[in-house]
Amino acid sequence: MAIDIEKANATVVERFMEARPVATTMAKAIEVVPGFHENMLLHAGPPVTWERMSGPMKGAMVGALIFEGKAKSAEEAEKMLSGGKIEFSPNHEHMCTGPMAGVISPSMLVYEIENKTHGIKCFSNLNEGRGKVLRMGAYSQDVLDKLRWMENTLGPTVKTALEAMGGIDIRAILSKALHMGDDGHNRLDAASVLWTTQLSPWIAKTAKNTDTAFEVIKFLGENALSILNPVMAGCKTMTAAGHNVEGSTIVTIMARNGTDWGIKVSGLGDRWFTAQSPIVKSLYFPGFTEADACRDIGDSVITETAGIGGFAMANSPALVTFIGGVPKDAINTTLDMYEITYAEHKQFTVPLLDFRGTPTGVDIRKVVEKQITPRVNTGVAHKDPGVGQVGAGVASAPMSLFEDALVAFAEKYNI
Amino acid sequence: MAIDIEKANATVVERFMEARPVATTMAKAIEVVPGFHENMLLHAGPPVTWERMSGPMKGAMVGALIFEGKAKSAEEAEKMLSGGKIEFSPNHEHMCTGPMAGVISPSMLVYEIENKTHGIKCFSNLNEGRGKVLRMGAYSQDVLDKLRWMENTLGPTVKTALEAMGGIDIRAILSKALHMGDDGHNRLDAASVLWTTQLSPWIAKTAKNTDTAFEVIKFLGENALSILNPVMAGCKTMTAAGHNVEGSTIVTIMARNGTDWGIKVSGLGDRWFTAQSPIVKSLYFPGFTEADACRDIGDSVITETAGIGGFAMANSPALVTFIGGVPKDAINTTLDMYEITYAEHKQFTVPLLDFRGTPTGVDIRKVVEKQITPRVNTGVAHKDPGVGQVGAGVASAPMSLFEDALVAFAEKYNI
Predict the structure, then answer these.
(1) What CATH number labels A19-232?
(2) Which sequence spans correspond to the domains of chain B?
(3) pTM of the model
(4) How far is CA B81 from the centre of its chain?
(5) What's the CATH architecture for B244-412?
(6) pLDDT digits over B261-314, tens only?
(7) Contact A326/B180, CB-based, under 8 Å?
(8) What is the predicted pLDDT for the residue at B132?
(9) Which of A184, B115, B124, B244 is surrounded by the fewest CB atoms within 10 Å?
(10) Could you tell me which of A72, A126, A67 has the C-alpha nearest to residue A102?
(11) A326 to chain B: which residues are within 8 Å by CB?
């Protein structure tokens, strides 16, 4: 059968761009996430065994089991995790995404993000803020206490507000925030305050009391990553809409687990292509160096997959103070990404480049031809469990992912 | 006496930059504004008589008298205004600022903005949002109804929240918002949501009921100019700190009333230098043309006087969709303003220009030498009373202001 790659790719990126994700409500993960069960933990990136698992992901899994009440101590949790009592499964196999370690456990509340154009629902958990947090592999008492507050207070309050207001249009917020210094991944300062500003009146109206309204609005407003998780799930609803189009060479999933990078390609079904995850080129927090860094980790690269994040970095010159480099690098990163993408986004634009659309839809053919791989703005976790974030920077996907995928594509389609 | 202009100017810009304005509370104008009285109306720009007054300013004065209960109709108000019953005085003579017509009447609530570094208090009224509003010269029933809601609900709720939280640091918000696509004058999308996000938890906690909290937070969050008035008063506390330094050639006030532009210079005391206000180079709203435009109007150019607004436009390439031009113009405007300013701001920076400080402190010597006048991002009001905004664009101050001031400077200091 002759395939029309151009037509297939045009279909895929059109779906990416037409997708309109809306945050509608929250629910317990076990109740809404497809294929989840009580003895499963979800995680970022491609599949991984306990033996090969990165430190921060191990730490987050330990914390999650204690949070679930399944283990009383780190020792007990590790025993369960290494003993085959718990099934590990990638978020992406369950229409989920999670930043960094990305661990989602059954009783955690997750956002439901619905792509209203294509009727696809994806999920992500609540964001804990910066610093010592589960997603960076920390699981001390204060981390667990905050998770419980999120479960009992933050989540239910946000859920009620979201339902009362009829949901929040994630794409509309991103379109605006990309003109407000955000890249849509590592810098979400604007999107997070826009999110908070839309939620706040409804929280004030519907929270169980004014003290709860106060603490929830304050927490959301002070967390510059409040909207990261709904943005990630929103981006997944975009790229999922373009997955499984026969003959397409567009990447629909990129994700890392701190050990491996993995990608999936629209025309290559459910096969993961994986390679060792790189060390992030990073600015380190005081007291840390590259020797402390876990390899690149997290599902957040779904933002780049959808055409923002590092790909939209020309919108975010101020971000270089956080991830390193000079403002000109920000513009050059976006320009480079045009080389390996199929389209310019219709909803997300770069004012500085005369409102050109962001580079959208990584084409494995172009990556291999140009020998340029996708660039990602990202946080860096400590390589050991229990520590937390140590820096932020820029990572490049391994070239072999795209080479392997291209070989598989040629085989599948007899090219 | 030999004067040291360089030293004087360094002192002035140092005060501009060291000033830290904080929004502390609100009060009725008559109770806090120096020199105000019951039969006075304050207005934007330099002094002006009823006969020479621009249409939108006349409209705003009519609306203010009806709002105050001093007149029952536009006819009655006009009769009072033209008959010498009401004294008109520039905001700037009373430590006030107001956008566009800038009319402040005795019973209006005003923000108190305190420069904590120098102990200077300035004031501005509440922002009405975009569209048909008093500051643009409209005074229909819906305009007056909104003013009353602002007086009875919005203002008291914000006042209580500001006091409970201990005030909001305007300079800190501006520093951040300038890295979020704002110029700090015509585009305040980011600053306004940061302002709303800081206020919201306290409004939720202290509003008289949840319905009030809901409507106030929603109004603030949806008004992309919520923070404009406190920003203007904040900028005035900066430049006022630098006024009246002997021997300084730095401009401390720029303001327009729709008829004239006026400036004051630090080393030239309380003398206004004035010239006819220009027509703004503007993008017009559908249905309007330059023939509908009032000449440049408003105290909002105090932002440029303090080193932001048009001067920081390199931070705001997306603004060209609202005021006209292409993104490159935004960068060039900032670069041009370095030619006529004395310093680069220590608190306000431009990421795209490698975090260079914004051009700060207009030096009348440089303006005349380079033949470049300050450029201002601004709204445009209809020239007739009662209509409202018709566009937005860029204005350049008349050169003669600076030439006249330089002559006066030479005379005063025997140069």
Answers:
(1) 3.90.1710.10
(2) 22-232, 244-412
(3) 0.96
(4) 24
(5) Alpha-Beta Complex (3.90)
(6) 999 999 999 999 999 999 999 999 999 999 999 999 999 999 999 999 999 999
(7) no
(8) 85
(9) B244
(10) A126
(11) 354
